[in-house]
């Protein structure tokens, strides 16, 4: 079990967990769109690579396009007065077909740019052609041409620390930008909207803009995660986002249990720390769980069961606290 590789996967999960944190915690809207926008991010990123777009520009485009999917969820929520959960399910369902269109199939692999590879070839002459016509073999000296295979993806999957460092830099940069944004006047309103929607509305602020912004950012981070995962894994698949919201919620809860009391950067570190710990726990469960009959297909069941238990305990603690106050 490669701990560094597990940590890298945890950092990738941290991006989408950060996006789900924006939806469920910051603006307090239940949003299942990331199940589809995560795949959309991967599909857009890989498709742009085939068009010669560098991976970092492809990731930025994935952020914008997947953010637009969150925008449509917000439009259904605001303009059509739909429940946010129903609106997100509808957009998520639509994105399944959209992703199939973009990838032109159920999956697509990351392209390789083969520009220089060492090859051997025989130099052809008119004498060779003449001997070839007579079915007579003749040996000719081989000639070398130096070429090198260059991969479009920035990840080498060698567990040498380079992938981990790159992921960590991108993630810390994203958290820093997001924390600075939440310190602005608009960011404060965004956090206030999650805490008291009617109170923010009474200040004369258009709550539609706040919900659109929150869902745009949340799904944008899901798209970044999907794009980076595709680059890291070497492919994008239409089913790779299934259950990603539940997994992200588990990561958020784990992170809140561990470090929420420190309230660092508006608890933006909770999803990241929780995602890494979740991946570590998952790897241990996959490695040693067979001794108690654990199967890979049980992981979704256990993750959901974990969330139910934690939320149940928190609800009981709140009720107990209210009784003591009364």
Structural overview:
The chain has 326 residues and is mostly helical. The protein is globular and about 65 Å long. About 11% of the residues have low confidence. It folds into two domains: 269 residues, ABC transporter involved in vitamin B12 uptake, BtuC, CATH 1.10.3470; 38 residues, no CATH class. Helix content is 68%, strand content 6%. 37% of the residues are buried. The strands form three sheets. It has a two-stranded antiparallel sheet with strand order 1-6. A two-stranded antiparallel ribbon has the order 2-5. The chain is built from twelve helices and six strands.
- Fraction of residues in helix: 55-70%
* Strand/helix succession: HHHHEEEHEEHHHHEHHH
How much strand? 5-15%
Q: What's the CATH topology label of the largest domain?
A: ABC transporter involved in vitamin B12 uptake, BtuC
CATH class of the largest domain: Mainly Alpha
Unreliable spans are 114-149
Q: Quick one: overall form? A: globular
Report the count of strand segments.
6
Give the strand line-up of the largest sheet.
1-6
Radius of gyration: 25 Å
N-to-C CA distance:
51 Å
Number of domains: 2
Mean pLDDT: 86
> Helix segment count?
12
Backbone structural class: mainly alpha
What is the level-2 CATH architecture name of the largest domain?
A: Orthogonal Bundle
For the biggest sheet, the summary is: 2 strands, antiparallel
What's this model, at a glance?
This protein has 326 residues and is mainly α. The protein is built from 12 helices and 6 strands.
Features:
12 helices, two-stranded antiparallel ribbon, 6 strands, 326 residues, ABC transporter involved in vitamin B12 uptake, BtuC, mainly alpha
């Amino acid at each position: 079990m490669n701990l560094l590789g597990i940590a890298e996967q945890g950092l990738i999960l941290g991006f989408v967990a950060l996006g789900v944190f924006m939806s469920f915690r910051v603006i307090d809207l239940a949003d299942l769109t990331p199940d589809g926008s995560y795949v959309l991010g991967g599909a857009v990123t890989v498709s742009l690579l085939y068009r010669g777009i560098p991976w970092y520009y492809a990731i930025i485009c994935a952020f914008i396009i997947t953010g637009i999917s969150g925008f449509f969820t917000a439009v259904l929520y605001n303009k059509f007065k739909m429940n946010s959960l129903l609106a997100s399910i509808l957009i998520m369902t639509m994105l399944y077909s959209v992703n199939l269109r973009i990838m032109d199939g159920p999956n697509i692999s990351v392209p390789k740019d083969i520009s220089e590879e060492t090859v051997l070839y025989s130099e052809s002459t008119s004498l060779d052609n003449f001997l070839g016509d007579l079915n007579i073999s003749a040996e000719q000296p081989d000639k070398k041409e130096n070429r090198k295979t260059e991969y479009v993806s920035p990840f080498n999957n060698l567990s040498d620390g380079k992938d981990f460092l790159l992921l960590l830099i991108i993630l810390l940069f994203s958290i820093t930008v997001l924390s600075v944004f939440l310190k602005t006047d608009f960011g404060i309103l965004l956090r206030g909207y999650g805490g008291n929607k009617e109170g923010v509305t009474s200040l004369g602020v258009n709550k539609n803009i706040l919900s659109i912004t929150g869902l745009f950012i949340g799904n944008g981070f899901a798209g970044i995660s999907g794009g980076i995962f595709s680059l890291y894994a070497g492919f994008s698949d239409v089913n790779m986002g299934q259950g990603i919201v539940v997994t992200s919620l588990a990561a958020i809860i784990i992170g809140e249990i561990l470090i929420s009391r420190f309230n660092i950067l508006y608890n933006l570190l909770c999803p990241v720390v929780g995602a890494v710990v979740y991946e570590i726990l998952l790897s241990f469960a996959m490695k040693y769980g067979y001794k108690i009959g654990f199967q890979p297909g049980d992981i979704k069941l256990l993750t959901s069961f974990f969330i139910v238990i934690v939320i149940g305990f928190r609800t009981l603690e709140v009720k107990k606290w209210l009784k003591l106050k009364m």
